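Bug report

Summary: structure tokens for Anti-sigma factor antagonist differ between web form and batch submission.
Environment: batch mode, default settings.
Steps: 1) Submit the sequence below via batch. 2) Compare with the web form result.

Sequence submitted:
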Amino acid sequence: MRYQVQENCLTIYLPREVDHHNADEIRKEADAVISRNHIRYVIFDFDRTDFMDSSGIGIIMGRYKTVSLIGGEVWAVHTNERIRKILTFSGAAKIMQIYEGEK
């Protein structure tokens, strides 16, 4: 997982596939960065992502739960049509800002 921290904002650059094979690693690293840097805002960058299963939705929901307790927010950027559909159908779109933008 690649990430960038700016003040209290964490941007997570997700891999091509976000699934059960890499979800645990992404979750653990994100949680460590959030805790260590007092993060309030998490941006999931889907620029390279073509596939996401329910494990990816779990990553989003868990980070939302963490930062929302301190008044934070979760955003998605660079989503393609497939990822927007997954976020919408899963209900994740209701808890996060999705910034439109094709690859």
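Above is the batch result. After comparison, the two runs are identical; trailing whitespace caused the diff. The chain has a mean pLDDT of 94. The longest helix spans residues 23-37.
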